Amino acid sequence: MALVRIPEEHATLRDREAITRRLTEAGIVYERWEPSHPVPASASPAEILDAYNAEIERLKTDGGYVTADVIDVGPQTPGLDAMLAKFNREHWHDEDEVRFIIAGKGLFHIRPRTGPVLAIEVEPGDLIRVPRGTWHWFDLCETRRIRAIRLFQDSAGWTPRYTESGAERGFEPVCLGPGQLAGHGAAR
Ligand SMILES: [Fe+2]
């Protein structure tokens, strides 16, 4: 289950309904997906895509996505830091950013045109859809691992366009999720 922090409001949302409502207000789609049959996080890309085929097809029809793949990055990935450095500054894309998390954890910061920045920690089972044009940035959590299904409207559109606002500098790329709650959760 995702966790949403709103630093400006000193608020942390852990309840699915509250998270979905707040993200919907900001134009972000959030869903929890179940596989059609049990599939280990280490399964092949083809097996993963098959287990979530119904959800993928629904989203394709809904959002005009034409392809889906599985991305897998971890501490051993060559050039990981260079890859992450492309996305940890505020940017937008000309197509939606759609991710369903299979393994690992990541942290999206979303800066709506109006309203406070939302820090969204995503974990396995979470689907997030960030519409084209949305200002955002992304970091991995401490394990520096993420495996995710991606959906594309047109992979040619998949380049970050930087706002150069520097907004990301005001927010720590730190995840709070299970295992990192001690000392943080009680105060919120
Ligand atoms: Fe992005």
Please outline the helices and strands.
Blueprint: E1 3-6, E2 11-13, H1 16-25, E3 29-32, H2 45-51, H3 53-63, E4 67-73, H4 80-85, E5 91-92, E6 97-104, E7 106-111, E8 118-122, E9 126-130, E10 135-140, E11 146-152, E12 161-162
Bound molecules: fe (ii) ion.
Task: Please provide a written account of the structure.
- The protein is globular.
- The strands form 3 sheets. The protein has a 5-stranded antiparallel beta sheet with strand order 2-1-8-7-10.
- The chain is 18% helix and 31% strand.
- It has 188 residues and is an alpha+beta fold.
- The model is unreliable at 181-188 (pLDDT under 50).
- It contains 4 helices and 12 strands.
- The chain starts with a strand and ends in a 26-residue tail after the last strand.
- The chain binds fe (ii) ion (FE2).
- Fe (ii) ion binds at residues 87, 91, 93, 97, 136, 138, 160.
- Fe (ii) ion is lined by residues 87, 91, 93, 97, 136, 138, 160.
**β-sheet strand percentage:** 25-35%
Radius of gyration: 16 Å
Backbone structural class: alpha+beta
| Count of strand segments | 12
Mean pLDDT: 92
Strand order of the largest sheet: 2-1-8-7-10
Largest sheet: 5 strands, antiparallel
List the bound ligands: fe (ii) ion
Form type: globular
Topology as a string of helices (H) and strands (E) = EEHEHHEHEEEEEEEE
Distance between the termini: 18 Å
> Ranges with pLDDT <50 over ≥5 residues?
181-188
Please, how many helices?
A: 4
The residue fraction in helices comes out at: 10-25%
Short descriptors:
single chain; 188 residues; five-stranded antiparallel β-sheet; 18% helix; disordered C terminus; binds fe (ii) ion
